[in-house]
Amino acid sequence: MCRMFRRLTVSALLVLGMAACQPIDKNLEAEDSRNPHFKKAESYTEAKNYVEAVREYEAALQANPNVATAHYELGRIYGEKLGDEISSMYHFSKFLELRPTSEKRESVQALLDNAKFSLATKLPNSPVANAEMFARLQSENANLKRELEEVQSRVARLDQQQQNAAAAVSTPAPAPTATPTAAPEAPKATPVAPVAHPTTPAPAAAAVVPVAPSTAPTATPAATAVTEARSHTIAKGDTLWKIARKYYKGDVNANMDKIKAANASQVDFTKPLKLGTVLVIP
C-alpha cells in the first residue's frame, strides 16, 4: 500500500515538473489579435455575437489577468451592447487600475462616468430619473398645448365656414317676396275689357271671362306668403324631432311624417340633415 502511494506521489511530481518546464504561450500576454482569445472575440464582435465575445475576453483574463485591454473591451460591450452598466463600470475601473497612465485614461473615465449616470437614471426615485421624466413631461405638455390650439383654430374656421354657408343658403329666401308685387298688376288690366263696352249686350258675356283669371293671381301670393312664413333653415344641433316639436303640438312622429312628406322631393331624410337646408313646414 505504501509503495503504491509512493508511486502515485512520484508520478504527480513528475507531471507537475513537466508542466513547469513547458514554456508559457507569450501570445496570451498580447493585447491584440495575436492573442487567440482576442482574435476570436473580435470575430464575434464583428458578427454582433456579443455574448460569445464576452466569453473570449473573459477567457483571456483568466489566462492572463494583466491584459487590461480585455477589461476595456468588456466595459464597452457590457455598457454599449448589453446594457449592463454595473459590469461595464467594473471593467472600466479595472482598466484604470491596471493602466493608470494610459493614453485612454480620460476617455475611459468619461465612459465610466456615463455608465454611472445611465445606471442612476434606471434606479427608482432617482433625482436624475425624476429630472429627465419632468423634462419629458414638460415637452409633451407643450406639444399637447400646441396641438390643442391647432384643433381649436380648425374648429373655429369650420364653424365660420358653416355659418357662411348657412347664410348663403338662407339669403335667397326673400326672393318670393318679389312675386306678389308683380302678380297684383294683372288684375289692374283685367277690368278694362268689361268697362270699355257697358252698353252693348254682346260684351256682357265677355266681361265674365276676365273675372275668373283675376282670382288666380290673388291666391298665389297668399299661398306663397304662408309657405315663406312656415319654413325652417337647418342650424347646428337641429334634428327632425326638434323641428317637429318646435312647430307642432301633439303626436311628434305624425308631425315628423308631415315634414318628411312636404320635403321628400328635395331632402333625403335617411341621411343626417345638412346645415343651411331650408325645410317647408306644412
Describe the protein in words:
This protein has 282 residues and is mostly helical. Among the domains are: 18-122, Alpha Horseshoe (Serine Threonine Protein Phosphatase 5, Tetratricopeptide repeat), CATH 1.25.40; 223-282, Membrane-bound Lytic Murein Transglycosylase D, Chain A. It has 13 helices and 2 strands. The protein has helices at residues 2-21, 36-46, 50-63, 68-81, 85-98, 105-122, 127-170, 178-182, 185-189, 192-196, 202-229, 240-247, 252-262; strands at residues 231-233, 278-280. The protein has a two-stranded antiparallel sheet with strand order 1-2. It is rod-shaped, with a radius of gyration of 51 Å. The termini are far apart. The model is unreliable at 19-24 and 192-227 (pLDDT under 50).
